[in-house]
Structures are given as structure tokens and as C-alpha cells.
Write a structure and sequence with these properties.
mainly alpha, single chain, 5 strands, DNA polymerase, domain 1, 5% strand, two-stranded antiparallel sheet, 310 residues, Integrase, 13 helices, hpI Integrase, Chain A, DNA binding, three-stranded antiparallel beta sheet
Length: 310
């Protein structure tokens, strides 16, 4: 039986209990799975470490061992998932001092990153190579994400009744749980519930495609079959190769959509709302390189305007 007041309890047992008390039912299932994965790593790396033995050096050694097989950002996530439990153990008097203080985050050298987005010409070229048949297929899925910037799980959950064709709107109010057992799930956050404006061409195309489909059934998930992100990414990769453009992922299409909007002068606030970001800060962090490039262009424009004044 677990004794939460026992400093000699094994750390991984304490951590599992902490997850069940503070996280179970309070976070999304996907996030919960990350905490459980962290628990499994504790069992693997420090099966005999007691809560009372969690010194700064012991904690740093744990992070170092984890970092041998993971990139720095993944190690940082591991650290953050552990830190809440460790600080609670300090508050409960099971550990005298915070062992996570001044922790140094290491990690493997990141793999070479694929291009995150296409420019306008590359996107247009890629889209002309899609096989847009008379019936719904994954190429239509790729087109819809390129035109809207919605997330993979959001696009899978789209049903015919989510389209408001007269007003050119697409309602995003749920996701499809493709990673686990399938079925509709809530959106990533409250800000993700939104209406996305559609262009007229997309309205005409999809109004014809979905007119005979069941109103409440997902249009891209046929017979609730298992859907794999890798399958759709494979189709997109082959299309990129045919079009002779950089190979990107489905998530890269979302980046492409946002990048093109920013480059044509759409405000960060509008892009954040369209993407369903919880705050503009998320948008600014994700697209910092583009925003900086645009600011440089603004400076050039300002200087040209000022130099014309006599």
C-alpha cells in the first residue's frame, strides 16, 4: 500500500501516485499519456531511487541519463513533467531542498530538420499536382488544410454540418481521436473552437463533395477506420516529389498557411484566431523568424518614406 508520508518510498511509485491524484481527470488523455511515459522512464532509469535520496546530483544524473537518448527539448519536457511532483514532495517535507534548482538540460544533437513550410509558388505548384477526384480522398484533405490551416485532428473531425456554405464558414468545434481508439474528442483548448472563413472556390468544391454524405459523420474517416498520420504524410510527400518542391508534413501545411498570411500583411491577432492559438504569444513564438523578416521590410519601407520628405 502506498504511504505518501514515507520519504523512503520509491520515487517512481510516489510519482505514479502523484499523477493519479493531481493529473488524472484534469488533463487531456494525450497529455496524460506523456506523464505515464515519463513514469515508465523512471522505472527504467531509476527503479531503486527513493524519494529521500533525490538530491540535486541524483536528479541531474537522472536528467543526464534521459538526455542520452533524447533531444534537448524532449529532455526539457521530461524535466517539467517531473518538477511538479518533486516540488510537492519538498512541500510535504519528504525532501529537504528542491533538487530541481539550477538543473542543466542536455540532449542529443537534433536531427536535421525538414523544411517547415512552402513559399506561395511552391504551395501553388504542389496543389496543382493533387488528385482531386469526384469523391472525397486524402488529396482533398491536403487541400482543405492548405486553405484553412486547421490541425490534422481537427480536419479528421470535419462533418458536412460543420460547413456553413452560404456564409463561407467552417466550424471547428471538435477533434478526431486518431492516436487512440477513434471517435470525436474536445478541441486542444477553448481558443481552438472557432469559425474559419473559406474562399468561394473551396465552398463550391466541398458543397458538391459532401452533399450526399451523412450530416454528422466525419467526411474523411470512412467507417471509423484507424487513421495514421504517417499515411497522409506519405501521400503529401509523394505529391511534393512529383511537384519538385521541398517535402513537408501535414503540420507543415499549417505552418505554410500561417506564413503566407503573415507575408501578405494579415495581423498576428487574426492569424492567431484563425489557427486557434490560445494566445498571440504562441503565434509570435512559432513564427518569430517570419515576423522579424517582416519587421526588417517595415524598417526599409519607413526609411524610404522618410527619405522622401524634404
Amino acid at each position: 500500500m502506498f504511504d505518501e508520508s514515507n520519504p523512503h518510498e520509491l520515487f517512481h511509485i510516489y510519482y505514479k501516485h502523484w499523477i493519479s491524484v493531481y493529473k488524472d481527470g484534469a488533463i487531456r488523455k494525450v497529455t496524460m499519456n506523456k506523464y505515464l511515459m515519463t513514469y515508465q522512464w523512471l522505472v527504467k532509469l531509476v527503479p531503486n531511487l527513493k524519494v529521500s535520496e533525490l538530491t540535486r546530483s541524483a536528479y541531474q544524473q537522472l536528467l543526464n541519463e534521459y538526455a542520452k537518448e533524447h533531444e534537448r527539448q524532449t529532455t526539457m519536457d521530461f524535466h517539467h513533467q517531473l518538477k511538479g511532483a518533486v516540488l510537492d514532495a519538498v512541500d510535504e517535507g519528504l525532501i529537504q531542498r528542491d533538487p530541481t534548482r539550477k538543473a542543466i538540460i542536455k540532449g542529443k544533437t537534433p536531427r536535421e530538420k525538414k523544411p517547415k513550410y512552402l513559399n506561395q509558388f511552391e504551395l501553388h505548384t504542389m496543389l496543382t499536382h493533387l488528385n482531386l477526384s469526384q469523391e472525397i480522398n486524402w488529396d482533398w484533405f491536403i487541400l482543405l488544410i492548405a486553405k484553412t490551416g486547421i490541425r490534422f485532428s481537427e480536419a479528421l473531425a470535419i462533418t458536412p454540418k460543420d460547413f456553413d456554405f452560404p456564409h463561407q464558414l467552417l466550424s471547428i468545434n471538435k477533434t478526431w481521436d486518431y492516436k487512440l481508439e477513434g471517435g470525436f474528442s474536445p478541441t486542444k483548448n477553448r481558443s481552438s473552437v472557432r469559425k474559419v472563413q473559406l474562399d468561394w472556390q473551396t465552398v463550391i468544391q466541398f458543397s458538391e463533395l459532401v452533399k450526399d454524405m451523412p450530416e454528422s459523420a466525419p467526411i474523411f474517416v470512412q467507417d471509423k477506420k484507424k487513421v495514421y498520420n504517417s499515411t497522409v504524410n506519405g501521400i503529401l510527400e509523394r505529391t511534393c516529389k512529383k511537384a519538385n518542391v521541398p517535402i513537408i508534413t501535414i503540420h507543415g501545411l499549417r505552418h505554410t498557411h500561417a506564413s503566407l498570411l503573415l507575408f501578405v500583411g494579415v495581423s498576428i491577432a487574426s492569424v492567431a484566431r484563425r489557427l486557434g492559438h490560445a494566445s498571440m504569444t504562441t503565434t509570435q513564438k512559432t513564427y518569430l523568424h517570419i515576423i522579424q523578416e517582416l519587421e526588417n521590410q517595415d524598417v526599409d519601407l519607413i526609411m524610404r518614406s522618410l527619405s522622401g520628405l524634404s
